[in-house]
Amino acid sequence: MTDLPARPAHLPARPYFSSGPCAKPPGWTPTSLATESLGRSHRSKIGKTRLQYCIDLMRELLKLPDTHRIGIVPGSDTGAYEMAMWTMLGAKPVTALAWESFGEGWVTDAVKQLKIDPNVVRADYGQLPDLNAVDWSNDVLFTWNGTTSGVRVPNADWIPADREGLSFADATSAVFAYDIDWDKIDVATFSWQKVLGGEGAHGVLILGPRAVERLESYTPAWPLPKVFRLVSKGKLTEGVFKGETINTPSMLAVEDCIAALEWAKTVGGADGLIARSDANAAALNQIVADRPWLGHLAADAATRSKTSVCLTVEGADEAFIKAFAGLLEKEHAAYDIAGYRDAPPGLRIWCGATVDTADVVALGPWLDWAYATVKAA
Q: Which of the two ends of the chain, N or C, has the fewest CB atoms closer than 10 A to its terminal CB?
């Protein structure tokens, strides 16, 4: 019988590797949050001021051009992307790209709910379709970083500047982790709970000028729920992009996001966040390279996620992964690292900016120990 490796002596200081909600920023405590806006109306002076401040911080950190608007909307990234689809699709043919579960979700909504019969281009988990073959006379739906597959688009070079259709980027695990060419993005959505480590429930909708033009010139054939309405009397409801949210937000979640954005400024802004994600992904890549039983679901390093890194485990089925992840959680070595339920059995380890590289490094021996322990069992 093969001897099991010794239980590692050192735990990661913060074993939070969930891909959403993600690790809080280093040093975060509830007592660090501003509370003056709590218990106040979001439409009060302080409520609107704090919401606008949150938007202003996002614009500053993302280096977002003045041509693009930022709105805080309900329903996390899902709500933001649904809002974009329901308000703007139908004016042109649609191409939907799907290489993981959330992209498939947008296909389902386009086909079954909006009934617009899109051209669907699929790729298996771990792969991308041929992006250069996309027909940009269409509106194009895509996921910038596939949270459930560990695959991302390499950049925005495949999006033409003279496109006829709109680019709709579900960028929830990408914003603040990659350098995004905003001139190529007409619609982008994300949630605070990913790279910023904020609380869930709220989404962020970013609109470029071409998206605003679509909203003001096109009326969908289907009815729009109140929480999706961005136009009044043929004009964009500008208040949504100045902190006047469509429905009541959690001011506690807003304050939590502000705290994360203020922390981000202390580590170098967006560039610092990207550098932290890069360092974490590099540390995990080294762990994988040193272990023959570990692999990347996304084989091509050029399109491999640097945030939601999805790994294959030699010989593992769903039961093995459940036992593997459960053992590490019991030991407080890693929380929530089992792959997404619709993905092939494997591990998913968040390497976004709120994770410390030292904790990724410390995870390596624990992966060895858990793998050997479960395999022996």
A: N
